[in-house]
Specification:
Elements (H helix, E strand, L loop, with lengths): L1 E5 L3 H13 L4 E6 L3 E3 L14 H4 E3 L1 H6 L2 E5 L2 E5 L4 E4 L4 E3 L2 E4 L4 E2 L16 H13 L3 E7 L12 H16 L6 E7 L12 H11 L3 E4 L3 E5 L2 E4 L2 E4 L2 E5 L2 E2 L17 E2 L12 E3 L4 E2 L10 H19 L11 E7 L4 E7 L2 E4 L4 H15 L4
Parallel strand pairs: 1-2, 1-9, 2-5, 9-20, 11-12, 11-17, 12-13, 19-21
Antiparallel strand pairs: 3-4, 6-7, 7-8, 10-18, 14-15, 15-16, 22-23, 23-24
Helix pairs in contact: 1-7
Length: about 375
């Protein structure tokens, strides 16, 4: 049996580990532009130099050798034959008996003037650019916000923007120059962060008020200029703009014979199997999954989906039917550089703990614990 996995992010690597745990002999091929993982949750610490870019890069060659994985360097152009053939941009094709799509999604870059903003979660260079811009500023206005995909409510990544906001506030205070800066948080939703839990938006806005952070909420974003955020409710003059757009599916999805959601993501069922296809699964940011509206695009969710996908794929390849279903759970620590706010949401409700130093250190410790399995 030959299984192909697309990607080298959280979902892809969890799928590799799960497959190997379940079957030591199955052939695994991973296709990705680079044999490298970037630990995206810790990008928030690059502007303060609490972490460096090299801390977040993980060379996966040793991991692939330990897991007996065949790595193919390349970019996917399309998927055809009901998932059995993966064509790369260099023209080569790779056949499989089973496929797990864990390649991640894309940020929607359609707003006019979006080239004037920095999108932090695009990777290490973006967060390093924030660091360098902050170093060069003697004062001014910093506007920080995020948007969504109106056709795919779950396709957004807002949590890190709260962390960049509170982290920059803490950094400027440490440097003794916070009074020279105006921080503005903007969001088209009147209650940003509501998918974390109904009580969360009020707590976050209250934190912003205590820290002297202004808010511009509930107004649709129309676009940007070099030093301006333009919304239906007015304009925000800004010297630095950080903005996280909503997400859609990978570029190859539209050219492949895959079912797509209205928002452009690959449609999956409750077993993480691509709708209408056999032995083809999706996990992480590339997928659109059934479930509660508050489900999030985050590493923890991707890990859960990938494990379900891997177990069900093996079952199918062995003549069985998918049995495992996705457990919907959201867990995050909103970090401020000194404190952390733990948020956990399940279908039973939301747990929200007040800021404490222990959670900040817990988040740092988790990074070390998580990455040691791949180093």
């Amino acid at each position: 049996m030959n299984i192909t996995i697309l990607g080298t992010g959280f979902a892809a690597l969890t799928a590799v580990r799960t497959l190997r745990r379940q079957d030591r002999n199955v052939n695994i091929t991973v296709i990705s532009p680079k044999a490298e993982m970037i630990y995206l949750p810790s990008l928030i610490w690059l502007p303060s130099r609490l972490k460096s870019g090299d801390d977040l890069r993980v060379d996966l060659n040793n991991f692939f050798r330990r897991m007996n994985v065949n790595f193919v360097e390349g970019r996917v152009k399309r998927i055809s034959d009901g998932g059995r053939t993966v064509e790369l941009e260099d023209g080569t094709t790779h056949a499989n008996d089973g496929l797990i799509i864990a390649s991640g999604g894309r940020f929607i870059k359609k707003l006019p003037g979006i080239e004037h903003v920095i999108t932090p979660c695009e990777g290490i260079p973006a967060s390093e650019k924030i660091r360098d811009r902050l170093d060069a500023m003697s004062g001014g206005t910093i506007a920080i916000g995020f948007g969504g995909n109106p056709k795919e409510p779950a396709a957004m990544r807002g949590g890190p923007m709260f962390e960049f906001l509170f982290g920059i506030d803490t950094l400027l205070r440490r440097q003794g120059r916070r009074e020279r800066f105006r921080l503005v948080f903007f969001n088209p939703a009147p209650e940003p962060g509501k998918r974390l839990g109904p009580q969360v938006p009020g707590k976050l806005v209250e934190m912003m008020a205590k820290k002297g952070i202004e808010t511009h909420l509930g107004h649709k974003i129309k676009g940007f200029e070099e030093k301006k955020v333009i919304t239906e409710g007015g304009e925000i003059e800004a010297d630095l703009i950080l903005f996280m757009p909503g997400m859609t599916g990978p570029a190859f999805a539209a050219d492949s014979d895959l079912p797509l959601s209205e928002g452009g993501l690959i449609r999956a069922d409750a077993h993480a199997r691509v709708e209408g296809l056999e032995k083809t699964y999706v996990a992480g940011d590339a997928g659109s999954f059934p479930g509660p509206q508050w489900q999030a695009k985050q590493a923890h969710a991707a890990d859960i989906q990938a494990e379900v996908a891997a177990i069900n794929l093996l079952s199918e390849l062995n003549g069985g039917t998918p049995q495992q279903t996705i457990r919907h759970e959201l867990i995050c620590i909103i970090d401020t550089l000194t404190h952390g706010i733990l948020v956990k949401r399940t279908e039973k409700g939301t747990t929200l703990l007040p800021p404490c130093r222990l959670m900040h250190w817990a988040k740092m410790a988790f990074e070390w614990w998580y990455l040691r399995q791949y180093r």
